[in-house]
Amino acid sequence: MIPSFNVPSGVSLPDAMPIPNIPYRLPSFDMPRWTPIVPPLTEQQMMTEPRVPPSQEEIIKEKPKPKPKPQPKPEQSLPSKPPPEKEEPQTLVIPEVIVEETIVIEIPFIGEIPIPPAELLVTAGTTAAIAASVSVVAALSATTLINYLMKAFTPALKFVMKRVLKRNNKYTVSWARQRQMERLQHRRK
C-alpha cells in the first residue's frame, strides 16, 4: 500500500520585493609617490676629513726608536782580583708588533661601525666551520649507531621475551591472531 497525499492546486509564490537602485562610484587607485628625504649635513660634518686607515709607512715612522744599550766600561789597567760575576736579571725581550688600527666604516643614520682585523675574522670563521662539521658528523654517526643497535637487539629481545613468557605459561598473541580466533569462535556457535 502506497501512501497518498493531496497537493494543493492554487499555490503561487509571492511577488518579488522591489529593491531600490542605489547609485555608487567605482573605487579609484592613485599610484603612491615617494620623495627621498636627504638629511642636511651639519657644518661640523662638512668640515671633518674622511677616516682613512694609516698606511704601513706612517706606522713605521711612528714607531719609537729603541734605546741604545749602555756600553761596558773599559777595564782598569791594574790587574786585580776579577770582580765576582753578578748575575744580571734576565729581561724578557718582546718583539715589536705593528698594531693595525681597526678600520671604521661610517654608515648614514647608524654611525661608525668598526670592522675587526682579518686574523680575528679568519679565526672566528674557522672555529664556526669546525664546530658545525663536528656536530653534523656526531649526529649522523649517532643516528647510524642507534639504527644498527635497534636492528641487532630487536630480534634478541623478542626471543628472550618469548622464552620468559613461555616459562610462565603466558603466550603472546598478536591482534590479528586474536581477531581470527574470535571469528572462528563466532562461526562455531
List keywords for this structure.
189 residues, mainly alpha, two-stranded antiparallel sheet, 4 helices, 2 strands, 40% helix
Topology of helices and strands:
Layout: H1 43-47, H2 56-62, E1 103-107, E2 111-115, H3 118-167, H4 175-188
Antiparallel strand pairs: 1-2
Strand order of the largest sheet: 1-2
Largest sheet: 2 strands, antiparallel
Give start-end ranges of low-pLDDT stretches. none
Instruction: Evaluate the radius of gyration.
Output: 48 Å
Query: Any idea what the shape is?
Result: flat
The chain-level mean pLDDT equals 77
Strand content: 5-15%
Explain this structure to me?
The model has no long low-confidence stretch (mean pLDDT 77). 40% of the residues lie in helices and 5% in strands. A hairpin with a 3-residue loop joins strand 1 and strand 2. The radius of gyration is 48 Å and the shape is flat. It is mainly alpha-helical and 189 residues long.
